[in-house]
Amino acid sequence: MSKIVFVCTKDRKQRPKFDKEVKILSRRLAPDNISPRPPKIISNYGVSIAIFNPAESLPIRNYSVCMGTFWGTQKNWWRPMAGIPDGSYALFRSDENKVELITDIVGSRTIWYVQTEDAFIASTSQRAIVFFLQDFQPNEEAFSWMLSSGTLGPGLSWDKRIHSLEGNARLILDRSSWETEIKKEKVIYEPVDLPDEEHEIRLKKAMEETFDNLSIDFSKWILPLSGGFDSRAILLMLKNRQGLKAVTWGLESSLRDKRNDAYVARALAKHYYIDHCYFHTDISDEPIEKIFRRFLVAGEGRIDHISGYMDGFRIWKQLYESGYQGIIRGDEAFGCKTVSTPNEVYINMGLTVFSDYEHTPLASKLINKHYQARPLSFEKQDNETLGSWRDRINAEFEIPVRFAALSDLKLPYIEVINPLLSRRIIEQVRRLPDHLRTDKKLLRRIVGSLSPPIVFADMPAIASYVDILKTRRIVDLLHKGLDSENARTLLSDELVECILGSVKVVDVEPGKVRKSLKAFVKPYIPASLKKKMGRRPAKPAMDSNVIAFRSYIICRMNRLLREDARAARHGCLK
Fold first, then answer.
1. Rounded to whole angstroms, how far apart are CA atoms 353 and 379?
2. pTM score > 0.90 for this model?
3. Is 361 within 8 Å of 383 (Cβ atoms)?
4. How many CA atoms lie within 13 A of 221 on its CB side?
5. Fewest 10 Å CB contacts: which of 139, 168, 313, 358?
6. What does the alpha-carbon distance between residue 147 and residue 157 come to, in Å, rounded to a whole number?
7. Judging by beta carbons within 10 Å of its beta carbon (0-12, 13-18, 19+), is residue 497 exposed, middle or buried?
8. Could you report the per-residue pLDDT of 161-208, keeping only the tens digit for each?
C-alpha cells in the first residue's frame, strides 16, 4: 500500500529540500477516498527517501527499502552488491558509496529512474519523479502505445526522460564517478529432457518450497479467489489455511451463473470452510469523472483496464480501512495459450501496434499520425520455438508492463504479493518443454490432481470493459473530455473528430452492464470448430470507444503530470 521516491545527490553533503515537498506530494499521490498514513522519511549521506502511506510489512534497514516481500529469510538484503533475493518486490538499497536498484525475476513491480548532472531519482511512481524534476516533458511514443495497446508500451514512461528498469535486472550507481551500470539476465527457455512425470514432480516441489517460505499473518492478508487455476493453485498450496479469508469481485448477476468465476469461487471457499466476501463491481453512482480521476491517480494511467474499478475502488477502500496489509495475488508465468502465428503472439500479449488491426478509417488515421515499431528484442530469435518465444514475450512485456500496471492500481490501498512468480518456480517453468507450458498444461495437471471435485469456471465475473465504455454516462464524459483544446493540441483536430464521430452508445439498465455476446457464446463453441477458427486468425477490430477512452487517459495524464510539476515549483498543497 506504498509508493517510494529515492533521491541521491552527487554532493554527498547536500540534503535536498524534502520535508515540505514530501508533504505536498503525499497529498497528490493519495486516492481521494482514503486517508493515508503519514509518509516515512529517511535521510543521510546525500540520500533522501520518502515512503508514502507506508505499510507495516515493508522491510526497511539503514538506507535500503524493499517495496514488497521476500520468500524466506534473506541475509544482507539491504547491502548494495549483496546477493539478489527471491521475492515479489522493487528493491532500493544504498550506502555512502553505491546505489543499487533491483527488480524481481519478472519485474512484477516497476522501478522508474532518471539521472541528471546533480541528482539520481528513482521511484515506483512516475509522478513523483516529475514532481522532483519540477517540469514535465511529454513522450509522444507513449501516446502511440497507449492508443494501440492500452499500455505505455515496452519500457516507456509518460515523460521521455524517465526510464524503467527491466525485470531481473540491477542498476548500480557509483556515487564517486557518477556513472551507472545495468546488469540483466536474459530470459531463456531451455527445456530439460526428462519424462513429463519428472517435470511434474520438480515443478510441484518448487511450488511447495515457495509456499513453505511464505510467512504471513492470514488475519491481515486476503486471497482474491476466482474460479480458475491460478488462485486455486495458491489455495491448494497453502498448508495452513487457519484464518485465511477470500474475496471475489464482479457483477451482482455473476453469482447466479454456475459457469462463472464468482459462483465457483464461492463454492471453493465453502468447501474449505474459508470466510468469503463478494464485492459488486457494478457501476458506482458517483460521477464518472470522479471514478476516472481516481483510476488515473491510483494507477498513473499505465493501463486502460477500467472494468474492475467502476465501483469507484470501493473494494480497495474497504480492505484498507479494515486494516488488511495486502492480497496474495495469482499472477503467474506457467505458459500461455496456444498460438499458430507471430501475429497471435503479439495480440495475445497486448503488444499491439496500429498495423495489427483491421483496416478502418480510424486505424488509417492513427497509422498516418503515429509511427510505431516494436523493439527488435521482441522479435522471434532463430533458436526459439514459437512456444518459447511466446512465453518470453509474456515474461518481458506482459508481466512487467500489463500485470505490473494492474498491481499499481491496488498498491495505493494495499500490498500485493505474487508467490507464483517466485524465482524458484519461474526457473523450473523455463526448463519445461513447450507442450507442458502451452495452455498451462502442467499447472492444470498439478492443480487438478489436488483439487476437490469442483468445476473450473469458464466465464469472468466482471463486465467487459468494451461494454462499459458504451454506456451513456461514459460516452458523454468522453465527448466532453475530447472535445477540448487540450485534446486537439495533443491528438490533432482530425483525429479527435474521427474518434468523436465513431463512438457508440448502448443503453443498459442504470448501474448494470450487460455481458458481451462473445462471453455467452464461447463456452458452447465445439472444440473442433475453435481449432478450425484458430487456423484462420483475423486481425482484431479497433473499437472506437476504447480508442476514445485511451485518448482520454492521454489527455488527463498529461494534465495531471503538468499539475504535479507546477505544484512542486510553486509549493502548492492542493
1. 14
2. yes
3. no
4. 21
5. 358
6. 14
7. middle
8. 999 999 999 999 999 999 999 999 999 999 999 999 999 999 999 999
